[in-house]
């Protein structure tokens, strides 16, 4: 079963797959507000659908637009189906070849996991989950781990909220309480552009190196 093509292929334009109810056009609420200036008041109607905003002057037009979006997204459009079919054909044509998307994905993610592990292994303050090599049915051999997310545990007693501990060092993550893991745990996403991952690794390195000096690294914009 294919859950979503955009996550499989990295092609965000496909938008073929499961959509959470909170992001569906049906969940878009019509809300009118007035914007005043010196001479007149214009009515604007903002509508949120699939994380997009539209400002429409005429409320009737806005309601018709919402109705169109709801009806046109009940099923998957023909255009999207053809686009997804093309993407899947390209993926299948390159399986186990030089441009195999799964080999590319594995190489990138396994490299990121090794680099992150090398840094965190020097720390007594934080640790990563243990992931042994496993047999891969696609490559038909034992492969090193290549996770999309890294679970971090704060080991020091005073760091009872791992999310806040990393955030203070400019490292953005997802608190473990969201996944019923407790505040001692937080999750880092390794699915980033290469520049963003390099910056994340730089922040983690600064965080680990600061242990030797008994200080927290200076906070900056979160990654």
From TrEMBL:
<dbReference type="GO" id="GO:0008483">
    <property type="term" value="F:transaminase activity"/>
</dbReference>
<dbReference type="InterPro" id="IPR050478">
    <property type="entry name" value="Ethylene_sulfur-biosynth"/>
</dbReference>
<comment type="similarity">
    <text>Belongs to the alliinase family.</text>
</comment>
<dbReference type="InterPro" id="IPR015424">
    <property type="entry name" value="PyrdxlP-dep_Trfase"/>
</dbReference>
<dbReference type="InterPro" id="IPR015421">
    <property type="entry name" value="PyrdxlP-dep_Trfase_major"/>
</dbReference>
<dbReference type="GO" id="GO:0016846">
    <property type="term" value="F:carbon-sulfur lyase activity"/>
</dbReference>
<dbReference type="InterPro" id="IPR015422">
    <property type="entry name" value="PyrdxlP-dep_Trfase_small"/>
</dbReference>
<dbReference type="GO" id="GO:0006520">
    <property type="term" value="P:amino acid metabolic process"/>
</dbReference>
<keyword id="KW-0663">Pyridoxal phosphate</keyword>
<feature type="domain" description="Alliinase C-terminal">
    <location>
        <begin position="53"/>
        <end position="208"/>
    </location>
</feature>
<dbReference type="InterPro" id="IPR006948">
    <property type="entry name" value="Alliinase_C"/>
</dbReference>
<dbReference type="Pfam" id="PF04864">
    <property type="entry name" value="Alliinase_C"/>
</dbReference>
<protein>
    <recommendedName>
        <fullName>Alliinase C-terminal domain-containing protein</fullName>
    </recommendedName>
</protein>
